[in-house]
Write a structure and sequence with these properties.
The complex is a heterodimer of chains A (426) and B (917).
Chain A lengths: L1 H17 L19 E8 L4 E8 L4 E8 L2 E9 L5 E5 L7 E8 L5 E8 L4 E5 L7 E7 L5 E9 L5 E9 L2 E2 L8 E3 L3 E6 H4 L6 E9 L3 E8 L2 E6 L4 E8 L5 E7 L6 E9 L2 E11 L4 E5 L8 E18 L4 E5 L5 E7 L8 E8 L5 E8 L4 E7 L3 E6 L5 E18 L2 E6 L1 E3 L3
Antiparallel strand pairs in A: 1-6, 2-5, 2-7, 3-4, 3-6, 7-8, 9-15, 10-14, 10-16, 11-12, 11-13, 11-15, 16-17, 18-23, 19-22, 19-23, 20-21, 20-23, 23-24, 25-30, 25-32, 26-29, 26-30, 27-28, 27-30, 30-31
Chain B lengths: L14 H4 L8 E6 L6 H9 L8 E5 L10 E3 L2 H6 L7 E6 L2 E3 L3 H11 L4 E8 L6 E3 L3 E2 L5 E2 L16 E2 L7 E5 H7 L8 H14 L4 E11 L9 H15 L2 H24 L4 H15 L1 H14 L5 H4 L7 H18 L4 H4 L1 H4 L3 H16 L1 H5 L14 H8 L17 H11 L4 H26 L6 H11 L3 H6 L3 H15 L12 H18 L6 H11 L7 H9 L2 H9 L2 H4 L12 H10 L8 H22 L4 H22 L7 H21 L11 H4 L2 H4 L8 E6 L10 E3 L2 E7 L15 H15 L5 H6 L3 E7 L4 H5 L6 E3 L6 E6 L6 E2 L4 E5 L2 E3 L7 E3 L7 E2 L3 E3 L2 E4 L5 E4 L3 H26 L2
Parallel strand pairs in B: 1-2, 1-4, 2-3, 6-12, 13-16
Antiparallel strand pairs in B: 4-11, 5-12, 6-7, 6-11, 8-9, 10-12, 13-15, 14-15, 16-18, 17-18, 19-20, 20-21, 21-26, 22-25, 23-26, 24-25
Classes of the chains: A mainly beta (426), B alpha+beta (917).
Chain lengths: 426, 917
């Protein structure tokens, strides 16, 4: 018996050494990330400046607008997109006060929203969006005499956020403690008036690095009474943008947040067809390039920017009375929502669709609002379509192949421009 | 003891007194009848006294037949009063006393020589080889006699000195006739010793001298000590005290005596003796009943009193004799725990030659050093080691009460909760002190227990105590304790005692099997209360031991220990997954070196022909089997705990055998060296200052929940981490992380193990999945119904960190630098409504009474009163009574009652066994 036991001990001792240990118990699988459909909008309710928030959706569903300021939710407003799928909400109805933010809980992923800030003197529009993760970039600001540029940092969530701002101008990287470790309290908006901090700069780019929490950044440029509103976006290597016809001076700004030289190329989709390499160049580290577009054509055309590194391309349209800006799109999509796209009473507006593909795209343009009108048109391959806007809450564009859509409007010389919001799944 | 020495007297009385002397004192002998004593023999012995003039003889008692010439009297007082005044002395003698022929003459000679009033004989126990019963003695202030004699001490004339004493026994005392008449003799209500004490004290207060006369030898049959009359002696002493002392002395002596009685009773109860308490109670009741006659006695004494209490104090021992005896007993018992060789008892010179003492001292020193942080700072609150609850609440929970772990459950709490409550109660409600003391005591008990087990299995070397360190910090226990399992440490400490109870020392016979069964049941119950499945280990050990040819084990005792698993039945039945679900196991991986090390220790003993072989092979087999199973078989946490502790236990047995003695045999030498290595590694694990427990204080870090709580008190904390070890107590697997709900008042021992998930836990899991996926924009609102005030994320950032970046109502609050804390301002109160919150009240809740139903954020279970109903997963009760409580079912009450009955039965068996020869 004793030898049996000894053999058993030896065998088990050996087994204990050689056999693999049991697998550790692990936690359950991480669920797929399903972010709630929300959009964060800049809200301005100062004096005669008011903000309307346009919400477009593929579904008839309920949503909620919550405005917040100084760490508190100042008001909430429930809404339904209704049978038309469109609704416009005045931020003031949700007790918005001052320069603040609004968070829209949308009924579905297939929903988009835009903020339209209006006053007797100015109009500015920009798409609302969820907060992108990581680094974002905004360029095109100026603080030269007569120009005012400020950036608005919006933290719509309950956690405190911290961002580092890297401000680059023609003089290089600006050094100011007000750009470092900017704390954006929960449910708050922080404004950095660059006109005061770095006056006299002609070309300003701001890289926003969020080190904690979530922040959405908007830029607001006011020049000679005209105002433009646009938001910071992550940089990319390819951008597409339809350019509306006529009007004020048009130019494209290509800027990079990278501390490296980056080559770029601007292709055109215009009356002469596809023109590759309309403009090429090299961006200096954290540099910026202006590409004049006024001379290309009075009509509408499209632009594609291809770069060897991350850049952001934006369209600027300006005149004595008008200042409008919108950021190009990094994607093509078969469906676009254009909240806020409308021809204001007494004014005009245009919907511009770029088909960068090599086949003609059939496009259904649906007016969303009190009167739903659908038009079906073809957009030639590598061509651009311009459609006049009518009074509506917004537009929905459905194409047979991926396109890019933007809209612009003008009222008494005050212009606005905004790229639509693509829906990949319709 | 204050004594006054007189001249040494010869053992034989002066010859001159044996002759008829004209001036020789006249003596009357008063023989008091004693039930069962042979009066005729007593008279015959008295008749042989060598003394002239011949004494008169009277017998005290009623209805007695006496020879002619012998007077009778119904009472001693009557006999004394009727004594003629020509008589000089009265010799009061029990009928069960057999004086030597010269006993009276010696008394007369010394009482005259010392001008004393009362003299007592040296009493020897009849039927023994001159075993001393009394040579007079001192008392303490309470009259507790202190003879100074050892049990069974033989008379070698070592006390043959005439001296003043506090009292002499009434079995044989010579007293001046006039004094006896003045004092009216012995108190008839008092038993022998007490009456002697009483009479001696009164004599002294009357100005007389009390002496012991060793040359007067009397053999005492002791029939006057009626069986079961111990309380009468105690009552008599109290009466003697009440009679003798002045009111001023009584003012402090009586309360002091009450205090001593209380302490004596409590400590005796702790030592499983109930009689002292009964004696004290009976004694006081008897004196209350006889208080009028005591007052009469005092009045009588007053008329003859000529001395103050100081005269009595001169012969008093310092302090309390009773407490001193208890102290000596306790110290003796404590020492005997370490000293099974009885080296201490045999004398200090041999202590240093006892290897067992050396081993025990060294092991105890290591344990104490290993517990230095616990001693100086306190117990850690981390892992599975958390503070005890107040005793009342612990008992309520254990006795079928509401289990507050997680979102609450009707399932029984861990059976150790009853023990922790008991230990807190014994520490007068100080849970912290109870936890610290219990842990230290258990650690030492574990080491000592292993040494005692080794001793019972025939080992004598120091290694058996050092092997106790392997038990506490060996291959399996170290893993468990390292994860904070206080229960594993405690269970390991008790395991050797339970196993020991199933073995009988080779030198012992079958006697006392009843008591042994009691001990087996008691240790089995205690063991199962700490780790329910470990109660099977004694049986397994005995079976393996027997299979290997070992002797001295008792299957019946091992089975009795197994019956102790009754203590864990309710818990296991309440949550079967604890013993059946491997997915709940802790991620503990046994090092692959341990099985090899144990094998190296055990295998060489195959060539040994002594008992060491059986022990080493038994331990080795138990250990390697357990280690192999623990390493490769996924087990439920209860099984895992038992198997890992068994692995350490087996390793300890092998080490104990290997270190019992050193051999020059190379193979044995290898085994011994391997054993030393295992001991060193184990001691190293222990040496972190916390007996191997991890450091940290989760409750302190979560203290903000209580500090910042509103009127409704702290609710709950959701604790989550990707590292399971960081979550206090049992954790639930969540989507990409581990989590559990923790009581905001601080986690306690009873909450360590989570009951089977109820509807609330399932709902919480769903909510957390939604939150983790990021779809929930308002996680605070989602968690509000669970009364979760705080969310604490620990360890590396994970999916919940990401999800909580984009949400609206959980506010990050920098309250703890080691974790991410979010405050939920949306949380509902644990009980009641935000406008009218109720607060905790024991294991229930209370608040303002009202007509509205009161919601309770606890998993619903039938039994909540008043009128508990289910609302979603939670509970709603009527608010009319202003309080809510949980009423257990009869089944829930039955099992704890059965456990109590088991404990009582075990104690009863031990008690019966200790009385049987």
């Amino acid at each position: 018996m004793k030898y049996v036991v000894v053999v058993a001990i030896a065998a088990l001792g050996l087994a204990g050494m050689l056999l693999p240990a049991t697998e550790p118990v692990t936690a359950d699988a991480v669920p797929a990330s399903e972010l709630p459909p929300v959009a964060i909008c800049p809200v301005v309710e100062v004096g005669e400046r008011h903000t309307n928030l346009s919400v477009l959706s593929s579904v008839n569903g309920a949503g909620r607008l919550s405005t917040f300021s100084a760490g508190e939710v100042t008001g909430s407003l429930d809404f339904r997109t209704g049978g038309t799928g469109a609704v416009t909400v005045a931020a003031a109805e949700a007790n918005a006060v001052g320069v603040s933010g609004g968070l829209i809980e949308m009924p579905s992923d297939a929903t988009a929203a835009a903020a339209l800030i209006t006053s007797p003197e100015l109009r500015a529009a920009e798409s609302c969006a969820d907060i992108p993760s990581g680094q974002t970039f905004i360029s095109g600001g100026s603080t030269v005499s007569g120009s005012f540029f400020e950036i608005q940092l919006i933290n719509p969530y309950a956690g405190e956020a911290t961002v580092d701002l890297t401000v680059t101008t023609e003089t290089g990287i600006e050094s100011d403690h007000r750009f470092d470790a900017v704390i954006v309290p929960p449910l708050s908006t922080i404004t950095r008036d660059l006109t005061q901090i770095i006056p006299g700069r002609e070309q300003i780019s701001v890289r926003v690095d969020t080190t904690r929490g979530s922040v959405l950044t908007f830029g607001r440029q006011t020049t000679d009474g005209a105002s433009a509103l646009w938001r910071a976006v992550p940089a990319g290597q390819e951008w597409l943008l339809p350019v509306p016809p006529g009007g004020p001076l048009k130019r494209m700004i290509i800027a990079t947040p990278e501390n490296a030289e980056i080559e770029y190329q601007v292709d055109l989709f215009g009356p002469d067809g596809y023109v590759e390499g309309h403009a090429t160049g090299v961006l200096e580290p954290r540099g910026l390039a202006l590409v004049p577009l006024a001379a290309v054509s009075d009509g509408a055309f499209g632009v594609r920017v291809i770069a060897t590194g991350p850049v952001v391309a934006s369209l600027w349209m300006s005149s004595d009375q008008t200042l409008a800006s919108t950021t190009a799109s990094q994607v093509e999509a078969p469906v676009w929502l254009l909240p806020g796209a409308s021809s204001p009473p007494g004014g005009s507006g245009s919907l511009v669709i770029l088909n960068a593909g090599i086949e003609t795209a059939t496009v259904n343009i649906r007016t969303l609002g009190d009167q739903a009108v659908v038009r079906s048109v073809d957009v030639a391959a590598e061509g651009v379509l311009v459609e006049d806007l009518v009074a509506a809450a917004g537009y929905r564009v459905e194409a047979s192949s991926p396109v890019v859509a933007m809209w612009t409007s003008n009222l008494g010389g005050e212009g606005t421009a905004a790229t639509g919001i693509p829906l990949q799944d319709g | 003891m204050a004594v006054r020495m007189s001249q040494t007297t010869p053992q034989v009385a002066d010859s001159e007194l044996t002759e008829e002397t004209p001036g020789a004192p006249l003596v009357r002998i008063l023989i008091t009848a004693v039930p069962g004593a042979d009066l005729e023999a007593a008279l015959a012995v008295v008749g042989r006294q060598v003394y002239e003039p011949s004494p008169q003889i009277a017998v005290i008692g009623e209805g007695l037949e006496v020879p002619d010439g012998v007077a009778t009297s119904s009472s001693l007082e009557e006999a004394i009063n009727s004594t003629d005044s020509t008589i000089d002395y009265l010799w009061i003698l029990h009928a069960d006393a057999r004086p030597r022929p010269d006993a009276l003459s010696a008394l007369i000679a010394e009482i005259e020589r010392n001008e004393a009033s009362l003299a007592g004989s040296k009493l020897l126990k009849a039927g023994t080889p001159d075993e001393l019963e009394s040579v007079g003695g001192a008392t303490d202030v309470f009259g507790e006699p202190y003879s100074g004699l050892d049990e069974g001490e033989i008379d070698l004339q070592q006390y043959d000195v005439v001296r003043e004493v506090a009292f002499v026994q009434s079995a044989s005392m010579l007293v001046r006739r006039d004094l006896a008449q003045g004092l009216r003799g012995l108190d008839p209500l008092l038993p022998p010793v007490a009456s002697g004490l009483d009479f001696s004290q009164r004599t002294r207060l009357a100005g007389g001298k009390v002496i012991s006369v060793p040359s007067s030898e009397v053999y005492h049959q002791g029939r006057c000590f009626a069986p079961g009359s111990g309380w009468r002696e105690q009552a008599g002493r109290l009466r003697a005290m009440l009679t003798a002392y002045s009111p001023l002395t009584l003012l402090w002596v009586v309360p002091y005596d009450l205090l001593v009685s209380f302490v004596d009773s409590i400590i005796s109860l702790l030592m499983l003796r109930w009689r002292p308490l009964a004696r004290h109670v009976m004694s006081w009741l008897w004196n209350l009943y006889h208080l009028p006659s005591t007052i009469s006695q005092r009045r009588r004494l007053r008329s003859v009193r000529s001395e103050g209490d100081e005269e009595l104090f001169r012969f008093h021992a310092k302090g309390s004799v009773r407490l001193r005896a208890i102290g000596e007993e306790i110290s003796g018992r404590v020492l005997s725990v370490f000293d099974d060789d009885q080296a201490l008892a045999r004398g200090s010179r041999r202590v240093f030659g006892s290897p067992g003492i050396w081993g025990a001292a060294l092991a105890a020193l290591v344990v104490i050093l290993s517990a230095r942080t616990i001693i100086f700072i306190g117990m850690p609150d981390v892992g599975f080691a958390f503070p005890f609850e107040p005793p009342s609440i612990a008992f309520q929970r254990w006795f079928g009460g509401w289990n507050e772990a997680g979102l609450g459950s009707a399932h029984p709490v861990h059976p150790s909760v009853g023990l922790t409550g008991l230990s807190s109660l014994l520490m007068f409600g100080s849970e912290g002190a109870a936890r610290t003391v219990l842990t230290l005591v258990l650690a030492i008990v574990g080491v000592v227990g292993f040494g005692r087990l080794g001793g019972r299995l025939g080992l004598r070397g120091p290694g058996r105590y050092l092997a106790g360190l392997v038990l506490l910090a060996g291959p399996g226990t170290a893993l468990l304790v390292g994860r904070g399992s206080w229960l594993a440490l405690a269970a390991a400490a008790l395991l050797p005692w339970a196993v020991r109870a199933a073995f009988i020392h080779p030198g012992e016979s079958r006697r006392g099997l009843v008591g042994r069964a009691g001990w087996a049941l008691l240790t089995g119950l205690l063991l199962a209360a700490l780790s329910p499945l470990l109660a099977v280990v004694p049986l397994i050990t005995v079976l393996v031991w027997r299979a290997l040819g070992g002797t001295g084990s008792k299957l019946l005792l091992a089975a009795t220990a197994l019956a102790g698993s009754l203590a864990g039945v309710a818990f296991v039945i309440g949550d079967l997954s604890w013993v059946t679900d491997p997915s709940l196991r802790l991620n503990l991986t046994v090092s692959d070196l341990w099985p090899a090390a144990v094998a190296v220790i055990a295998i060489p003993f195959v060539l040994d022909e002594t008992r060491l072989r059986t022990m080493a092979l038994t331990g080795g087999l138990l250990s390697v089997v357990s280690l192999a199973i623990a390493r490769v078989v996924p087990m439920a946490p209860g099984v895992q705990e038992a198997v890992l502790v068994l692995a350490s236990f087996g390793a300890g047995m092998a080490v104990a055998a290997a270190l019992d003695g050193f051999s020059r045999n190379p193979v044995r030498l290898v085994a011994s060296l391997a054993a030393i290595a295992v001991v060193v590694v184990s001691a190293g694990t222990l040496m972190n200052g916390r007996l191997g427990l991890p450091s940290g204080d989760v409750n302190d870090r979560l203290g903000f929940a209580s500090t910042l709580a509103g009127e409704d008190g702290p609710g709950r904390i959701l604790f989550a981490s990707t590292e399971r070890a960081l979550v206090p107590g049992q954790a639930t697997a969540g989507p990409g992380f581990w989590y559990r709900v923790v009581d905001g008042t601080g986690m306690t021992h009873d909450e360590v193990w989570l009951p089977t998930p109820g509807l609330g836990e399932e709902q919480l899991a769903r909510e957390l999945t939604d939150i983790a996926s990021g779809t929930e924009l308002r996680p605070g609102r989602a968690l509000a119904d669970f009364a979760i005030d705080w969310v604490v994320l620990e360890g590396p950032t994970f999916v919940l960190d990401d999800a909580l970046l984009a949400q609206l109502d959980l506010v990050p609050t920098p309250l703890d630098p080691a974790s991410r804390v979010y405050e939920n301002s949306e949380a509902a109160p644990l009980a009641g409504t935000p406008d009218d919150p109720w607060t905790r009240d024991g294991t229930g809740f209370s608040g303002t009474a009202g007509d509205s139903p009161v919601p309770l954020a606890i998993d619903f279970a039938p039994g909540w009163e008043p009128d508990g109903t289910e609302s979603s997963w939670a509970t709603v009760v009527s608010g009319e009574q202003g309080r809510a409580w949980y009423s257990p079912t009869l089944v829930q009450l039955a099992l704890p009652l059965a456990v109590i009955a088991g404990f009582v039965a075990a104690l009863g068996l031990i008690g019966i066994g200790s009385r049987r020869p």
